[in-house]
Amino acid sequence: MLRICWRKIMPSRFDDLADLAQCLRGSVPADVEWETLLALANRSLVTPALADALQNADDVPEEVQAFLREIDSRARQRNAMLRAQLAEAAAKLNSIGLVPVMLKGTAMLADHGDGECNRILSDLDIMLPQDRLEDAISALRELGYSYVSEAPNGWDVHALGREKDAGMIDLHSRIKIAAPLLDHAALADEAKAVALDTARVLVPSPDHQALIFIVHDQLQEYDYARGQIDLRHLVDLAILARRAQIDWSRLIRLMPTRHGRNAMRVQMRSLHSLLGGEVPDRMVRGIWPRLQHKRRLLQLRYPPLASLFTMLTLLVDPPINPPLEGGREGVEHPERRGLWRLSRLLELSRSRPLPTKA
Description:
It is a single chain. By secondary structure, the protein is α+β, with helices and mostly antiparallel strands. It folds into two domains: 27-204, 2-Layer Sandwich (Beta Polymerase, domain 2), CATH 3.30.460; 205-358, no CATH class. 54% of the residues lie in helices and 7% in strands. The protein has helices at residues 2-9, 13-24, 34-44, 47-54, 62-94, 104-110, 133-141, 184-188, 206-220, 223-226, 231-243, 248-254, 258-275, 281-284, 287-301, 305-316, 340-350, and strands spanning 101-102, 124-127, 146-147, 158-161, 169-172, 192-196, 199-203. The strands form two sheets. The protein has a five-stranded mixed sheet with strand order 1-2-5-4-3. It has a two-stranded antiparallel sheet with strand order 6-7. Helix 9 (206-220) runs antiparallel to helix 11 (231-243). The protein is globular, with a radius of gyration of 21 Å. The two termini are 26 Å apart.
């Protein structure tokens, strides 16, 4: 009763996240506020996952179940369109001798049968060898694709699209941090081949999929330093851990920097604590992962603390990860410039969370 009264007086994003996380584990809190919870699920892009988790729950109002079923159905329909688009593009790339590697949500889409994947995708992320990007772009132009924005961006990512499609295609040549090196050759070595209609694509190993999700959020998007949680990708990790055998110890070994290993342990701790992810206890022990996970939750209650916590984290565990090497000729990524990373982190620590952040 005390908790209920306090929430009515002083609601917080922490309480909302705690309720949503509990629902994503298949258990409904006694005092849940459905309108607030659904708003957070929609903003975090996890409504289809919520529909899966609660489909057999008896204590969910019928109007809520109806809403969840509708969102789930629409997500599956859109993903069927995206999968058909992906199959067409992959077949064209196959025709010039390329077998693309699927990344993040696109890997999950490719690895499921038509209409079975309900995960909300923003676009189709495809990785190709650096020296074949121009060939790939020329081939996709023959299907009617053109650049969506100025091409390529500072990360050497090529965004291509067509008006008739549900989403655009992002062509990558590597994951956007210098270490570990995750390019087409590194991922293809352990990937499995998947058939999409007449096309053939590569889906990274479970270890590499988990590594990409963690590296993307914790290091590339600076969620570790900022103490933020991308709930959609945390849910992706939980789903991946249930469906496949992830070698969590190997993930730590794959990360060459202390900063990166700390970031990985914090994400594992949040996965274990919030969503009940199947992470071995030995991987989430230690003072630092516990402190950083509690910091994430505390600044949800008290947002003004975020900047202070970010600066403290930078002092204790600075992001020592060398700038990207190579890349397209003539493209200088801003991380190669002196104090860019520090100034960017301080700027991000003062900004509001991204739409997909819990």
